[in-house]
């Protein structure tokens, strides 16, 4: 199969950069459901622009290109060992070209492989069938939404919902709770794959398989079809909204499957996927490996955004780093900021390092961006950021307050908000949390005018390194201010009350 590696490389590239047709249709509907002048409406406009930019540039929709997961059907007699070898070759090449971020980390040493190859990476599921083509489906699901996957063992007690029993009503409560607990950390607007039953392993696997279904299909099981419709009818009444900013739309898809279970076990497994729902497929010639046809892909995708650039309201506040305490104390929850100057990326590895060591740069008055970019070198050997959206900030909650205090940081950029400890530090030391739009990797890469330096590249790898980025008009929303106010707390509390109204306690 001399064309197999090239076909797989094309599949990986298109999956990372080109939204599936059914997801585009669903998001097109979503874009009309919010007022363009409110926070969620503006976030949706950025999402639409980002999808268009990624497709036109053939660059990653989201900087977190996730764990590549292949679902493959082969005719009897196809050499699956050779196919696995070709997949590895294509993964390495896609990473080298910047279509995938190097995401494979040794769990023992913490070392990033740099090429997305290692034990368990990528994930490949093979199954034989009696058709005369090879089918390859690829799901790229990022870490932010992967962290919001959840599994329930019925019966159980659920916050705001009370007891969930071993019946479909209990399953319904679990699904609503799964949506609520994700808030903005899973990059809502989101989509769910759900499995009722199975064991702990098969349940999660089958839940992810539901994400391979077209969003506009109808479940062949009428009972499950009715449950899917019920979830979709009520999920958007929660008021969580895009990015957890509050709003009319929180979920754009729910697909439910079921497996038989043991008498002692009743699991409900939920695979949460974000708006950057990357899933494509191909049918291949079993002799040559050439692509015969695409699955889920549009040949000429229609633009999602109405305009080439984001229309501003005129109420945005312009700030330039380094920031003063006076700059920060003027900001209030809900303000939209356009930030310019030098900022520094920092994720899990850097935060842990800064708890025990000095910073390689002076961070007084500076901004830490929770971001693991895609970075490649140009022909002159200079680093270029090709994807740069925010990562989920809550992972840094154990560290952030101490780092704000020790280094005099004035602003943190991320997504999904942070907890009480960080909120208190913002108040005590005069700092602010800025929520960028999760997944909008091309929109934010456009704001990076220059890479001025990088620290810890060899030690931490590209995603976790400390990149020094000069940015212009990086847009983010103040969701936690220096006066003790948090939009995330408000939305979580209000959506919890809505949850109780939708499915009252029993």
TrEMBL record:
Matches recorded under Gene3D superfamilies = Fe-S hydro-lyase, tartrate dehydratase beta-type, catalytic domain
Q: Tell me a GO biological process for this protein.
A: generation of precursor metabolites and energy
Catalytically driven reaction(s): (S)-malate = fumarate + H2O
Name its co-factor(s).
Answer: [4Fe-4S] cluster
Give the Fe-S hydro-lyase tartrate dehydratase alpha-type catalytic domain ranges: 7-281
Positions of the Fe-S hydro-lyase tartrate dehydratase beta-type catalytic domain:
307-489
Question: Looking at the keywords, is Acyltransferase present?
Answer: no
Pfam families to which the protein is assigned, alphabetical:
Fumerase, Fumerase_C
EC no. given is: 4.2.1.2
Highest taxon above the source species: Bacteria
Q: Which GO terms describe its molecular function?
A: 4 iron, 4 sulfur cluster binding; fumarate hydratase activity; metal ion binding
Alphabetically sorted, this entry's keywords are: 4Fe-4S, Iron, Iron-sulfur, Lyase, Metal-binding
Q: Summarize subunit and interaction data from the UniProt record for this chain.
A: Homodimer.
Its biological purpose is as follows:
Catalyzes the reversible hydration of fumarate to (S)-malate.
Q: Into which family does the record put it?
A: Belongs to the class-I fumarase family.
Kindly provide the name given to this protein in its UniProt entry: Fumarate hydratase class I
Species assigned in the record: Chthonomonas calidirosea (strain DSM 23976 / ICMP 18418 / T49)
């Amino acid at each position: 199969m001399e064309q197999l590696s090239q076909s797989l490389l094309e599949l990986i590239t298109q999956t990372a950069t080109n939204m599936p047709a059914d997801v585009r249709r669903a998001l097109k509907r979503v874009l009309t459901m919010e007022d363009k002048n409110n926070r969620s409406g503006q976030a949706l406009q950025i999402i639409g622009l980002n999808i268009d930019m990624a497709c036109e540039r053939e660059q990653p929709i989201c900087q977190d290109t996730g764990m590549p997961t292949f679902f493959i059907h082969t005719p009897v007699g196809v050499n699956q060992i050779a196919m696995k070898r070709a997949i590895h070759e294509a993964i390495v090449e896609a990473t080298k070209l910047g279509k995938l971020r190097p995401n494979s980390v040794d769990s023992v040493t913490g070392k990033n492989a740099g090429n997305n190859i290692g034990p368990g990476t990528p994930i490949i599921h093979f199954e034989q069938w009696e058709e005369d083509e090879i089918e390859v489906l690829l799901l790229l699901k990022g870490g932010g939404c992967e962290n919001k996957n959840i599994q329930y063992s019925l019966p159980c007690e659920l916050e705001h919902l009370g007891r969930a029993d071993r019946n479909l009503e209990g399953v319904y409560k679990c699904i609503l709770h799964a949506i609520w607990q994700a808030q903005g950390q899973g990059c809502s607007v989101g989509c769910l794959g759900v499995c009722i039953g199975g064991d702990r392993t098969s349940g999660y696997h089958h839940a992810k398989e539901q994400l391979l279904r077209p969003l506009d299909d109808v479940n062949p099981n009428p009972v499950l079809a009715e449950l899917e419709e019920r979830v979709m009818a009520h999920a958007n009444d929660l008021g969580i909204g895009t990015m957890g900013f509050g709003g009319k739309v929180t979920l754009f898809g729910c697909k439910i499957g079921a497996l038989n279970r043991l008498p002692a076990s009743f699991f409900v497994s939920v695979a949460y996927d974000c708006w950057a729902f990357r899933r494509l497929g191909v049918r291949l010639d079993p002799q040559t490996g050439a692509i015969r046809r695409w699955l889920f892909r549009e040949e000429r995708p229609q633009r999602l955004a109405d305009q080439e650039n984001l229309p501003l309201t005129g109420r945005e506040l312009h700030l330039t780093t380094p920031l003063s305490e006076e700059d920060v104390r003027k900001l209030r929850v809900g303000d939209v900021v356009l930030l310019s100057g030098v900022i520094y990326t920092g994720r899990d590895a850097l935060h842990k390092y800064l708890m025990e060591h000095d910073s390689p740069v002076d961070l007084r008055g500076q901004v830490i961006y929770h971001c693991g970019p895609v970075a490649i070198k140009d022909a002159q050997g200079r680093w270029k950021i090709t994807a740069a959206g925010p990562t989920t900030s809550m992972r840094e909650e154990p560290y952030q307050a101490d780092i704000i205090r020790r280094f005099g940081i004035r602003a943190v950029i991320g997504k999904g908000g942070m907890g009480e400890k960080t909120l208190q530090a913002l108040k005590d030391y005069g700092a602010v949390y800025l929520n960028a739009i999760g997944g909008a990797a091309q929109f934010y890469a456009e704001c990076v005018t220059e890479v001025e330096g990088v620290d810890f590249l060899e030690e931490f790898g590209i995603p976790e390194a400390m990149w020094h980025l000069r940015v212009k008009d990086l847009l983010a929303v103040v969701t936690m201010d220096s006066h003790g106010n948090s939009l995330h707390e408000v939305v979580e509390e209000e959506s919890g009350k809505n949850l109780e109204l939708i499915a009252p306690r029993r």
